[in-house]
Amino acid sequence: MTDKLYGGIEGGGTKFNCIVGNGPDNIVAEARFPTTTPAETLGQVCDFFAPYMSQIQGIGLGSFGPFDVDPSSPTYGYITTTPKPHWGNTHILGMLHEKLRVPIVADMDVVVAGLGEAKWGASKNNSHSLYLTIGTGIGGGYIVDGRPLRGLTSLEMGHIRIPHDRELDSFQGACPYHGDCFEGLAAGPSVEARLGQRGETLPDDHPFWDVEAGYISSALVNYILSLAPQKIVIGGGVMQKDFMFPTVRKKVQELLNNYINNEILLNKIDEYIVPPGLGGRSGMLGAIALIMDSGE
Amino acid sequence: MTDKLYGGIEGGGTKFNCIVGNGPDNIVAEARFPTTTPAETLGQVCDFFAPYMSQIQGIGLGSFGPFDVDPSSPTYGYITTTPKPHWGNTHILGMLHEKLRVPIVADMDVVVAGLGEAKWGASKNNSHSLYLTIGTGIGGGYIVDGRPLRGLTSLEMGHIRIPHDRELDSFQGACPYHGDCFEGLAAGPSVEARLGQRGETLPDDHPFWDVEAGYISSALVNYILSLAPQKIVIGGGVMQKDFMFPTVRKKVQELLNNYINNEILLNKIDEYIVPPGLGGRSGMLGAIALIMDSGE
User: Fold this and answer.
1) Angle at B105 between CA B102 and CA B109, to 5 degrees
2) Which of A222, A231, A254, A260 to mutate to test the interface with B (most CBs of B within 10 A)?
3) What stretches of A122-230 adopt beta strand conformation (E)?
């Protein structure tokens, strides 16, 4: 049994979630702070960690974006061009490091949540797992043997192009870059822009949910065909509607149409497309996984 | 300088290409045989290798599919349910091994071609590269650090769903499983089914080429966002039209719309989406790469 502790920070656009521990079974402290200004919020974060710093070996950070994760870039560790007031061009990694003086490793929020799920959560027994969040934005992280897949850049899979039947859904899409990409058609803001109300307030029997499930299923089919994950874990607000997982699973099978002769896709889809195993702590615990496994 | 030689076989639905050597600069012998029956074609293949077998350390095979590449499967090394006469349920790996008596390693044709390009061809300096073929079918292999990415299954990225504007192109798609998936809209047979003539005979100024380039670009954008390759190498008949690469590159940039702030995507796309560096030998040489790097 190790006494080593780690800090985890899930930095989101609404709140910063912080945790001290070394896994889901040993959480020493936990807190959340509203995302106001970098000085105020990061100040609260550092104050929270202060009593534990003698035991903390290092800190992991999962940040909202756009966040520069390229160590060779001059803006590595910066939140770059976000429209969020006060946070544009913020050297969040540097500010934390200056105050906390321990090794800090950072990655995109969704990648870090994927690491948490792969280490301790729903995909802990899978070498290749996809973590997707469908909420205010849509993003994904692909974890291979405990490490995020990354090539020329980080993955930006929320913006893939999917079929859009304009007779069924005449909305032109809400993505400022791509219009009707997956995020533009299916993320929270697109629901509100289309229907004039937030998805949370939309009744379960509203016909839009079937359209939404169709977009999600098209995207999942593309990820399955392009990446072949062994597990797909989906977090974020949209999937919290009870009926969403069963509907999406059924539509994925319909779209694949038995093309891939694999037992899990054909007969065990309930175990394949699943909610997070760590509940609301995927991001925080993932941040701990990130620093624990970083070699720092 | 090694004297070790290897055999490479690119087994296609039309012909089997065979090579002896240990790289593009040392090709000892090369031949091709029509794909007739397994007994006849594999007999010719084995006769071709016979004079070199005392020097050959092992043989790599890239096979047309559906080809079972899962070593834990009872039909590993089989061509399974192909509609091609004589070749259904053929234990191609076993038949070759029985006659040649050296280690033989096999994978899907497109994956093997990707390995060849990654070792000696257009993507030889890239740790993460995508190889795509667009011809009679559409398939892709993703090579990470010299090994094919594989998870629950092999990748089946030719069948992803992409936007299909039925006002622009009323064709319903030719894929027997998915109708208007990428392969169903853009592979050779779909061109012929739609226009009543083969793509090769279609004039360069036919308006369909712009539609075709649009489908290819949508798919490439999805692969870029989902996999982030450092290089995309595209083989197969469709891209051999001179104007196709420039058109596709331009459309990919238009669709990405500067969303990813990366110098290569923004300003060096000519070096990013490229034809094979090994010309018609990607598959044969890839088969040699497969066995050389297999540890057999």
Assistant:
1) 135
2) A222
3) 128-134, 138-144, 147-148
Which of chain A's residues have a Cβ under 8 Å away from the Cβ of B150?
A: 228
Which DSSP helix (H) or strand (E) runs through B184? Answer: helix B182-186
Sheet holding A5-11, edge to edge: A27-34, A15-21, A5-11, A56-63, A104-108
Report the Cα–Cα distance between both ends of chain A, in Å, rounded: 20
Nearest-angstrom CA–CA distance, B143 and B118: 7
B36 Cβ neighbours under 8 A, 6+ residues apart: B86
d(CA B20, CA B292): 12
ipTM for this prediction: 0.96
Nearest-neighbour CA in chain B from A296: distance (Å): 24
Q: Is B75 on the interface with A (CB under 8 A)?
A: no
Alpha helices (runs of H) in A130-196, residue ranges in sequence order: 182-186, 188-195
| Count of alpha carbons within 13 angstroms of residue A2, beta-carbon side | 12
Please state, in angstroms and rounded to a whole number, the distance separating the CA atoms of residues A174 and A183. 8
Shortest CA gap A148–chain B (Å): 11
For residue B188, which of B164, B152, B212 has the smallest C-alpha distance? B212
Q: Which two tokens mark B43?
A: 């007999």
- Total beta-carbon pairs less than 8 A apart between chain A and chain B: 124
Calculate Rg over the CA atoms of chain A: 19
Q: Is B144 exposed, middle or buried (0-12, 13-18, 19+ CB in 10 A)?
A: middle
Cβ–Cβ under 8 Å, residues A269 and A254: no
Question: What is the DSSP secondary structure assignment for residue B181, as one 8-state letter?
Answer: B
Residues of B in contact with A259 (CB under 8 A): 156, 159, 177-178
In this structure, the strands spanning B147-148 and A128-134 are: unpaired
**Dist CA B24 CA B27 (whole Å):** 6
How far is A163 from chain B, CA to nearest CA, in Å?
4
| B73–chain A nearest CA distance, Å | 11
Q: Measuring CA to CA, which residue among A233, A75, A226, A63 is closest to residue A151? A: A226
Q: Are A282 and A235 in contact (CB under 8 A)?
A: yes
pTM score, whole prediction: 0.96
Q: Do A163 and B159 touch (CB under 8 A)?
A: no
pLDDT by residue for chain B (296 residues), tens only, comes to 457 999 999 999 999 999 999 999 999 999 999 999 999 999 999 999 999 999 999 999 999 988 999 888 899 999 988 888 999 999 999 999 999 999 999 999 999 999 999 999 999 999 999 999 999 999 999 999 999 999 999 999 999 999 999 999 999 999 999 999 999 999 999 999 999 999 999 999 999 999 999 999 999 999 999 999 999 999 999 999 989 999 999 999 999 999 998 999 999 999 999 999 999 999 999 999 999 999 87
Residue B161, chain A, CB below 8 Å: the answer is: yes
